[in-house]
Specification:
The chain has 3 domains: about 5-30; about 55-170 and about 295-350, D-Maltodextrin-Binding Protein, domain 2, CATH 3.40.190.10; about 175-280 and about 370-380, D-Maltodextrin-Binding Protein, domain 2 (3-Layer(aba) Sandwich). The protein has helices at about 5-30, 35-60, 70-75, 75-80, 95-105, 120-125, 140-145, 215-225, 230-240, 245-255, 270-275, 305-320, 320-330, 375-380, and strands at about 60-65, 85-90, 115, 130, 155, 165, 170, 175-180, 205, 240-245, 260-265, 280, 290, 295-300, 360-365. A hairpin with an 8-residue loop joins strand 5 and strand 6 (about 165). The protein contains 14 helices and 15 strands.
Amino acid sequence: MEHMNNATKWNLLSSRSIITVLFLLLSFQLLYPVQDLKAQTKESWRAKWERTVEAANREGRVNIYYWGAPNVLKAGVFQKAFPGIKVVTTVGVGGQLMQRILTERRADKQLADIYIAGITTMPVLQKAKALDPIKPALILPEVLDQSKWWGGKHHYGDPQKTYILTFSLSPTYGGVSYNTNLVNPQELKSYWDLLDPKWKGKIEARDLSRGGPGTTSLRFFYYNKLLGPKYVRRLFGEMDVTLFRNNRQALDWLGTGKYAIAFFPLRVAEAKATGLPVDSLKLVMKEGVGLSSRVGYVNILNKAPHPNAAKVFLNWFLSREGQATYQRAEANAGSPSDSLRIDIAKDYIPVEDRRTAGIKYLDLGAPEVSDPVPVRNLLKKIIAKPKMR
């Protein structure tokens, strides 16, 4: 060693150091094999979850703005699992809730933690930069495991696939109803069959030129490649359609046979239960079936007053227990919804209200088909002088 120059000594020491490090790494691998490293990773999510729950308990509440009836919260399952987090709900229709959130934020009042609604109002909040990314808030492995979700992935309602998470998609059949004495549904194979000349003057439709219930079904016609704008033009421009805004009157007309077919009426099942000869057309047509979330989107508001409680609720809500509770509550309330989780029971959902393998679906919540403005503008042009009743 004493005959070596300094450079040689340094190279030798460096080589010995590298060998020592490699030996230590090999020893560590033998002592802590891969499965133990996986266990450590598993523990890391568990520790993060426990810290989040602890912080959420200190916050003490979560404020949920919910479009419609929050049936899932009435079951009390979340409150039982997390008694330290009080659930406070603000309920209303989507447009009103969305405007309320924006008004509160303009007044520098950050009150909402979670917003659950349909797709139409979500992009407005996104454009206003009011939303936080969803993915960083997901902690539970069963929520992150995309194999547990329909299609093997998480679904989103925004182009970035970041802010608006879809948790439910159910079949929607175009919003068409009919008089059972005048129409034989078995003769209908395509939506084009409804434009047969024999139905001219025998069709009524809700006026959707300004939006409203039925817009989702109208988008199904407009964005469906086998129907499209041509179908909308022919329906409203050639079939002598009578437009309505009074739903009760529309059902009476349909039940008495004044009109054989109705587009976009509400409460048809209730009318059928009273004895009226009416029913909804729930057939798989040549053009496929639409998928609607109804109230099936969730996001987290940024600057949320209870950020940890929001994460706890979101993870529970998207968990197997949470989605099973949601799905059951909706079914019991008479508005069956098919959760995108595929590891929960579906047998109690009517066949026509749940997704079925082999059917061609059009997801009407997808960003590329969710904009109602083009079809509304087209409708305004067609019915500039509508025959209104």
